[in-house]
Fold this protein.
Amino acid sequence: MILYLSNRLVQAVEIKDKNTVLVCQDMAPEGSIINGIVTDEEVFLSWIRNFWTENKLPRREWTLVVNSTQLNSRVLELPKTGNAELRKMIAREFADSRTEQTVFAYHVLDILPGGKMQRVFAVAAEKEFLQAYIRLFTHAGIELISIEPAISNFVRRFSASFEVQKKNSIVQIMDGQEIISILFVKGSYLYSQRNRIFAENDEKALAREAGAVVERILQFASSQHVEDPVEVLYLCGQNQSGLKTAIEENQEFTQKIIPRIYNDDKFKVRKRTGSTEKLEFVYPIGILQKKEKHIDFIHQMKWDSPENIKKRERLVLFLPAIAVFTVCLIIALIQGISYLGRNAELSRLQRTMQENSMVDDHTSYELADANIEGMEKKMEEAGIFWRQLMSYPTLTSEIRDVLEGCAGNAVTVEIKSFNRDSGVLSMSASAGDVRDINSFVAALQEQETFEAVEYTGYTLVKGQNNYNIHIVCALAQGAGREEAGE
C-alpha cells in the first residue's frame, strides 16, 4: 500500500492485482499540509484518521511517498562500487549542505560506457523531517515501513515508459500550487525543476507559466548540447484538460517550441471504486516499477543507527579471523578427505599383503612409505598454497610510489581506504597552492595505473593556508598485481 503526500491532494493506493488498483483520494483541510510539511498537526491528524476510516483502509505496511522542497536531490557521476563506499561518496558530494542528521537515499540511473562509472540519483533529507511523519502516523494508528522521495518515484515511473523512451520529452506534473517539470533524453533523466504556480485558477495564465518553465528547460537542454530536439510535452496530474487546450491555442508555442502535447491519458492507471471503473493519474505508482531498498529513507536511517554501526564495526574486526578460519577449515576438509581415501587404500593394500604370501615384508614397507610420502607432498603443496593466499596484498608499494610521484613535494597525500573488488582507492590530499592541485590531478590522469580519476574540487581549510583536495581513483585492471605475485 502506498500513500502520497505533498499539498492538499492525498492519494492512497492499494494494489490488488495487475489489473486492479484501488485509489482513494481526498483534499486535506486547507492550510493543514503545505509543500509536504504538516503545518497543523492536530487538524491533519483528525482528518487522516477519518480518511482511513471512511475508505476502510488497512493500517499496516504502508509506504509513504513525500513531495517536498525539504528533500534535496542531485545527479552524481560516481565509480561503480558497493553500497557502503557509495554512501560515503554521496555524503561528500553533499558536503556543502549536509549536517550530522542528514540521511541519504539513492538509486542508480544508468551505467556509463566502460562499466566503471555510473549516474546516481541521490536525495538528502533531515532525520527530524522524516521522524515527524513516523510520529504522526504512529499517533494515527498507521504503520509506515518505508518513506520515499516523490521526485525519485516520478523519475523511475516515466523512465520506464515506452512513450518517454522513444523521443526527448518534458513531463510536467501539476500538484496543487506547484508544477514539477522533468527533462528526459531518450528515457534517461537529465534535469528537473520545481516551480510555484501563481495562476492556479486561470487556465490561460497557468498555460503561460507552464510554457515559460518549458522554455527555460529547453534552454538548459541546449546548453548541455542535447543532440536531438525535445519534441513532446506530457501534462500530468491535476487540472490537465483545460491546461492542454490553453497551451495548444498558443500557436507560437506549439509550432516553435514543442510540436506535440499530450495530457496524462498515457500515464493513467485503471481505478476501481465500488462498482465504477475509470482511469486516473496516480502520483506514487512509480514505486511499482522496481523496488530498491536504497531509495527508502527508513531503511537508510536503520543503516545509520548506532546499533547497526556497532554491528558493522564488530564484523570488520572479526572478518579477517573468520576468513582465516574458513580457509583453514576448507584446507583441513580437503586434506581429511584425502587422508581418509589414502588410509582406506593403505588398509586395502595391507589386507592384500596379508592374504598373498607371494608379497614379502619389504614390498609392503615400500608401498606404505610411498603412500605416506604422497600424503606429505599434498600437505606441503597445501601449505604453499596457503602461504601464497595469505601473502596476496590488498595495496602494493608500487601504487603508493605512483601516488607519491604524482604528488611530489607540493601535495600531501594519504591513502584512506581501498576496495579490492571495485578497485576504488579513497585518499585524503592537501596542498598549499591551487596550481599544485591542478598539476597533481593532471599527473594522476596520465597514469595507466588508474582507470578513472574522480576529481570533485577542493576546500580551503579555515585558519590555514591549505586546501583539501576531493579526489577518488579507480585502479586499472591488473594494477599492482605484478609486484604482489613476486
Summary: Confidence is low (pLDDT under 50) at residues 389-393.
